[in-house]
Amino acid sequence: MSHTIVIGGGFGGIAAALRARKLGHDVTLLERNDSLGGRAQVFEDQGYRFDAGPTVITAPFLFEELFGLFGKKMSDYLTMLPLDVWYRFHFSDGRSFDYGSDMDRTLADIARFNPEDVDGYKKLLARSEAIYKVGFEQLADQPFHRVSTMLKQVPALLRLGSYRSVWGMVSHYLKDPMLRRAFSIPPLLVGGNPFRTTSIYALIPWLERKWGVHFPKGGTGALVQGLTRLMREEGIQIRTQCTVDHITCEGRRATGVRLASGETLTADRVIANADAAYLYRHMVRELPRAARFKLDHARYSMGLFVLYLGVNRTYDDVAHHTIWLGEQYRELLEDIFEHKVMKDDFSLYVHRPTATDDSFAPPGCDSFYILAPVPNLQGDIDWSERAGTLGDAIIKALSATILPDVEKHIDTRFHMTPEDFKNRYLSEHGTGFSIAPLFQQSAWFRFHNKSEVLDRLYLVGAGTHPGAGLPGVVSSAKVVERLLKEETP
Ligand SMILES: Cc1cc2nc3c(=O)[nH]c(=O)nc-3n(C[C@H](O)[C@H](O)[C@H](O)COP(=O)(O)OP(=O)(O)OC[C@H]3O[C@@H](n4cnc5c(N)ncnc54)[C@H](O)[C@@H]3O)c2cc1C
Question: Name one GO molecular function term (predicted).
């Protein structure tokens, strides 16, 4: 049987392993951490549980498809709970805005900010649907390693205004400055500055409206567990605590991997779910000049500071997902993405899973994770010093707004910085989302799913087409499945 090695057990690697298995391959998945999920690790402490990474599940059909490959149903492995309020935005002037599944309530909330924006939002949504139909339905699962494929799509991309930024598109339809901020946030969920991210990502509002926003009962970790069980049932070999040092090859053809332990494994092909930039920088010997140029000129997503708090009281009026915005917006994002510096201001995403699922904390308690976009390691920040003070400042700011007195109720507190992303996941420059979702780094311009460097090497995950975020990385495995079907002996 044809043997496929998958490097990395993030969602992209898991989906690719399952799709290769469905094609009849003998599949081995190698993961350097103790458990699968990649950025979707689960931390536990003193009866509190924390999903470390992704928490907003959009497009659940993409996961259902993976179970469906083997005639199984996701509902036999886990329960997806649809959320009613998707995000509560908390603005620095004290106002808040609920965005969710009930369209009438969303429109009424928009009207409180600016009645003219009700119509603007409907137009934005119609635009988002048009972009979704091309960007997601037609392009997200298509291979883009041939320049001819890209050229064919250029007219459609230009028609949709993909050269514009998400901010540019949102501002075209909405007038209220706070609503502009709220609706331009989505690129941050995939590692982009809304002022520079291609407006292809303006498809997200329609993606959410069409499929809803979900949370798996038991958290994203439960989704990882369900998929891990499926992989084991289907005979995929899983090895954890197993770091790949480099890809072995004969001439231009990948032949397997060499582990950090010194062991060599051979295979007919390798699918890498390792960070694409890290892969080419460290795991492939001898890069051709064109590939080195792409790597040297890549622009990266931001880093993340994630604070985990177990709190011995509940905050019942805090929604499951809160976007807490500081005073600055454009300036803050320019500092983080372009100048790679941190000043005093920050904006936060606050996850309160206990709003939906009380298994995340002991009775009468809340589990929180609080995420702040920060410069990646291309900036000059000493995280061993900065993490403590940033954590304190975040706790103080939340205590003064949506989590009164929280500092008096903390049972457990720990954090992750860009250094941890680098060390734990081998993420180049410690980014949260690999290379940035810019127009000049999309589709053919992104790292190709069929390696441009080695034959029989394929790429899945955030740094390759279509990009970061769970829908993106799971779709990248569909691209690789198509490529595997085209493979010549
Ligand atoms: C804090 C945070 C919150 C997020 N929130 C959301 C959200 O709510 N919704 C959403 O859709 N997306 C979200 N995202 C983005 C999303 O989580 C990621 O884009 C996605 O999970 C990345 O998946 P991936 O397949 O690229 O692999 P990763 O998750 O990066 O996994 C890659 C795996 O490969 C392993 N690996 C790397 N190198 C090697 C090697 N040499 N040998 C062996 N193993 C190796 C790593 O250890 C890792 O486990 C979030 C991301 C973060 C960090």
Answer: oxidoreductase activity
* Torsion angle (degrees, nearest 10) of CA 203, 205, 207, 213: 150
Q: Which alpha helices (DSSP H) does 241-325 contain, by range? A: 276-278, 289-296
For residue 40, how far is its CA from the centre of ligand 1 (angstroms)? 6
Any atom of ligand 1 within 6 Å of the Cβ of 243: yes
Whose alpha carbon is nearest atom 29 of ligand 1?
38
143 lines ligand 1 (CB under 6 A): no
Query: Following DSSP, what letter does each residue of 233-259 receive, concatenated?
Result: HTT-EEE-S--EEEEEEETTEEEEEEE
What is the Cα–Cα distance from 247 to 265, expressed in whole angstroms?
Answer: 10
Q: Which two tokens stand for residue 216?
A: 């798996």
Ligand 1 pocket test, pick from 19, 39, 243, 305 with the greatest ligand atom count within 8 Å of Cβ, gives 39
CATH superfamily label, 3-40+219-299+436-486: FAD/NAD(P)-binding domain (3.50.50.60)
Which CATH number describes the domain made up of 109-208? 1.10.405
Look up residue 227 and give its two tokens.
Answer: 């998929």
CA of 69 to the centre of ligand 1 (A): 23
Q: List per-residue pLDDT tens for the chain, 489 residues long.
A: 899 999 999 999 999 999 999 999 999 999 999 999 999 999 999 999 999 999 999 999 999 999 999 999 999 999 999 999 999 999 999 999 999 999 999 999 999 999 999 999 999 999 999 999 988 888 888 888 888 887 888 788 788 888 889 999 999 999 999 999 999 999 999 999 999 998 988 999 999 999 999 999 999 999 999 999 999 999 999 999 999 999 999 999 999 999 999 999 999 999 999 999 999 999 998 888 888 888 999 999 999 999 999 999 999 999 999 999 999 999 999 999 999 999 889 999 999 999 999 999 999 999 999 999 999 999 999 999 999 999 999 999 999 999 999 999 999 999 999 999 999 999 999 999 999 999 889 888 899 999 999 999 999 999 999 999 999 999 999 999 999 999 987
Instruction: Output phi, psi for 171, to 5 deg.
Output: -70, -25
Closest C-alpha to ligand 1, atom 6: 54
How far is the centre of ligand 1, averaged over its atoms, from the C-alpha of 433 (Å)?
Answer: 7
Domain boundaries, the chain: 3-40+219-299+436-486, 109-208
Query: Residue 32: CB within 6 Å of ligand 1?
Result: yes
| 159 Cα–ligand 1 center, Å | 32
